[in-house]
Design a protein that fits this description.
The complex is a heterodimer of chains A (about 230) and B (about 400).
Chain A lengths: L3 E14 L2 E14 L3 E5 L6 H9 L6 E6 L2 E2 L5 H11 E4 L11 H6 L9 H14 L15 H13 L5 E5 L7 H16 L4 E5 L3 H4 L4 E6 L2 E4 L5
Parallel strand pairs in A: 3-8, 3-9, 6-7, 7-8
Antiparallel strand pairs in A: 1-2, 1-4, 4-5, 9-10
Chain B lengths: L1 H13 L3 H33 L5 E6 L7 E2 L2 H6 L4 E9 L12 E5 L4 H4 L3 E2 L2 H9 L3 E5 H7 L6 E5 L6 E12 L8 E5 H11 L6 E2 L1 E6 L5 H11 L7 E5 H11 L1 H32 L1 H9 L4 H37 L11 H28 L2 H6 L3
Helix pairs in contact in B: 1-12, 2-9, 2-10, 2-12, 2-13, 10-13, 12-13
The chains are: A alpha/beta (about 230), B alpha+beta (about 400).
Keywords (chain A): ATP-binding, Nucleotide-binding, Transport
GO molecular function (chain A): ATP binding; ATP hydrolysis activity; transmembrane transporter activity
Organism (chain A): Stagnimonas aquatica
């Protein structure tokens, strides 16, 4: 068994709707090894997106522990957590979440603004990332000048630009046609296979989920299968 | 590096909704122009008083300006130590054809008046003609231009204080020593008016409205004023003497409430545009909530997102403010042309420009405050779910 990158113990998350507590995750135990590629599956309301958000450090658990590379991210203050995300997590969203006023180059460059790289170094990194996703010739294009698949590839370039350990993808093909979805999934395969990135992906689509090395199923906030690290 | 990006994003975000941005810019510019004009109106009222010479004193009735003083006071004032010369003037208040043709008319002592007002420059020959002709008048250059008068023209005036139909022959046109001198006055012989009125209304005869006193040392203005007033203490017509500047400020005090209202309106205009701008920024920030959440997810701090909102708001308000400041000058010039009879000077002061700039900055900061706080409060996961 490879060493765990993500170690989750008794993780629970409860939201409040008015005065009513709404439990979303109930005592989750999950290990994800470095270099793993995990798909989180489950029906709507099962808590898979909440789990992904907790792993990505954009939400905080109600109880339990969540260690990523040995760091208890739930205990980090907000600013430290933001810095941790910038250095360690690449995000791929269902609706790409690109800045509409920035072109492809500028969108991919965004996370690098938080690093100490100079302009020339940033340019080199961005060109490499965009070449990797096959959009070297679309650097000057704005999101509204790109197809959905191309926008998602820009988003993937943005996710890998800081060379993060972990890439989280929330329904990355949910808004794409079959061909574009395949292109995106092929890219994620390469990130995992060639660059060794650990990927955690939420999806409804079994075909998409099958591309992962491991599938984890959740239902009503409880993990049904696939909790051990591979 | 990040600040450069903030400016770049602010500029690009400003241009996302061109119509909305254009209308907001226009609104801010109009508000800043209005603010500048209203401030200048108030300044111009006071400017008239500030132009008053501190070397000239005005002596009037202690009771009220509407009570005239005996003309004989002139000699007694002249004898007060420190006084160099004295002249006098009376408000005539006639109507030229129609009441709307208002301008200042004074019955003055033709022999001495222009000696005390060297800023009213008249050609020596014209002044001599005026002094010779008891029915003559001297008018300001702007006033003559307004009504197309020239030397030799007859000007009819319908008396209000001094009843009857009067007719004066223009014998000269005075020019101001500088562009701040009032060139809208109509000056006629007090002696002619006095003699004419003596038969009709003897109670008004041999009276003058104010004495204008030239003193040797402006630093002694208070002492000379006190000396003049003490000369007439316990008389039937006690006097009140003050510098010309103080006298004119006294006039302004009569319209203090109006000036306060104008100043209040100036600030209300700024407040209104602040509310409009705040609404614009709130709408913009609400539309971009998912983008802000994405930036935060990528590791940008709450402070960076706030800076983006403040940057855009300030860029918008400063652009509108600068446009407004630039437009204030031609607007003020047009306003002055349209209201020449009201103001001697109408200049946009540097202090007003600074206030306009300060208002623009304040509008930008206040408008961004609520959206920036809201963007800090919102959780990333909620922001990512926001519908745009």
């Amino acid at each position: 068994m490879a060493s765990s990158l993500i170690s989750i113990r008794e993780l629970s998350k409860t939201y409040r709707r008015g005065n009513q507590p709404v439990p979303v995750l109930l005592g989750i135990d999950l290990e994800i090894a470095a270099g793993d590629y995990v798909s989180l599956m489950g029906p709507s309301g099962s808590g898979k997106s909440t789990l992904l958000n907790l792993i990505a450090g954009i939400d905080k658990p109600s109880s339990g522990s969540l260690l990523i590379d040995g760091i208890d991210i739930a205990a980090l203050p907000e600013n430290d957590l933001a810095a941790w995300r910038a250095a360690n997590v690449g995000f791929v969203f269902q609706f790409y979440n690109l800045m509409p006023v920035l072109n492809a180059f500028e969108n991919v460059e965004l996370p690098l603004l938080l690093t100490g790289l100079n302009r020339a170094e940033r340019r080199e990194h961005v060109e490499t990332a965009l070449a990797m996703v096959g959009l070297a010739d679309r650097m000057d294009h704005y999101p509204n000048e790109l197809s959905g698949g191309q926008q998602q590839r820009v988003a993937i370039a943005r996710a890998l630009i800081t060379d993060p350990t972990l890439i989280v993808a929330d329904e990355p093909t949910g808004d794409l046609d079959r061909q574009s979805a395949d292109d995106v999934l092929n890219l994620l395969d390469r990130l995992n296979g060639e660059l060794g990135k650990t990927i955690v992906m939420v999806t409804h689509d079994p075909k998409c989920a099958n591309r992962a090395k491991r599938q984890v199923h959740l239902e009503k906030g409880v993990l049904l299968s696939g909790s051990g690290a591979h | 590096m990040l600040y450069g990006y903030v400016l770049k994003l602010a500029r690009k975000n400003m241009l996302r909704h061109r119509l909305r941005t254009g209308l907001t810019l226009a609104g801010i510019a109009i508000a800043i122009v209005s603010f500048g004009l209203l401030r200048t109106v108030v300044d111009s009222w006071y400017a008239g008083a500030e132009l008053g010479s501190s070397g000239r004193l005005i002596t009037r009735s202690e009771a009220s300006l509407s009570f005239p003083l005996p003309a004989t006071y002139s000699e007694r004032i002249r004898k007060v130590p420190g006084v160099r010369s004295v002249t006098f003037a009376n408000w005539f208040g006639g109507i030229y054809i129609d009441e709307k043709n208002f301008f200042a008319q004074f019955a003055v002592d033709a022999q001495s008046y222009f000696d005390l007002y060297p800023e009213f420059r008249v050609a020596p020959a014209e002044l001599a003609d005026f002094k010779r002709d008891r029915r003559g008048a001297i008018v300001g250059r702007k006033l003559a231009k307004k009504y197309g008068w020239k030397v030799g023209d007859q000007v009819p005036l319908r008396g209000t204080i001094y009843p009857g139909n009067w007719s004066f022959t223009i014998r000269g046109i005075y020019q101001g020593a500088d562009d701040k001198t009032d060139e809208n006055q109509f000056l006629m012989h007090w002696h002619y008016v006095n003699e004419t009125i003596k038969a009709l209304l003897p109670s008004l005869a041999d009276k003058v409205g104010v004495f204008i006193v030239d003193i040797r040392d402006p630093a002694q203005a208070a002492a000379v004023s006190a000396a003049i007033d003490s000369s007439f203490k316990n008389s039937l017509a006690e006097t009140r003497t003050e510098t010309q500047k103080a006298f004119q400020l006294g006039f302004i005090a009569m319209v203090d409430t109006i000036l306060l209202a104008i100043q209040t309106v100036a600030y209300v205009v700024v407040l209104i545009i602040m509310a409009v701008m705040a609404n614009t920024m709130a709408m913009a920030a609400r539309e971009r909530m998912r983008e802000y959440a994405t930036l935060k997810a990528l590791g940008f701090s709450d402070g960076f997102v706030s800076l983006l909102i403040f940057g855009e708001s300030l860029a918008l308000s400063l652009a509108g403010g600068l446009l407004g400041i630039l437009l204030t000058f031609p607007a003020a010039a047009s306003f002055f042309r349209a209201t020449r009879d009201l103001f001697v000077v109408f200049e946009v002061r540097p202090e007003t420009v600074l206030l306009q700039l300060g208002s623009a900055v304040l509008i930008g900061l206040c408008a961004a405050l609520a959206p920036a706080l809201n963007s800090r409060r919102i959780r990333i996961v909620d922001g990512l779910r926001a519908v745009t």
